Fold:
Amino acid sequence: QMHLVESGGGLVQSGGSLKLSCAASESPVSPYILSWYRQAPGNQREFVGNIVSSGDTNYGDSVEGRFTISRDNAKNIMYLHMNNLIPEDTAVYYCKYTSLRGINNVEYWGQGTQVTVSS
Structure:
């Protein structure tokens, strides 16, 4: 069973940057999707972006051009590079692993890491 652990959250001023990490307990097996989501108090969980096993990335409209996803395959870590942060980016950030092998997709979530952006 895949275990995911997010880290790197914290308090940052508006306009600042943070890098989040999502460490997987084992190597993802292709095909798969590694995703970032976030959830602010009172809001639904929002898609931030993902990276698929081919290396292609996709981003939500609210972070396009400011956030970048990368991965270190040797360390089984996915990163979320966040630049030009704004208070609206304040949320708990979660990573998710979706295995696309087999008939039914299997998903695993991390426990989340808090990001707070002050104005």
Summary: The mean pLDDT is 96. The chain is about 0% helix and 55% strand. The radius of gyration is 14 Å. The longest strand covers residues 91-99.
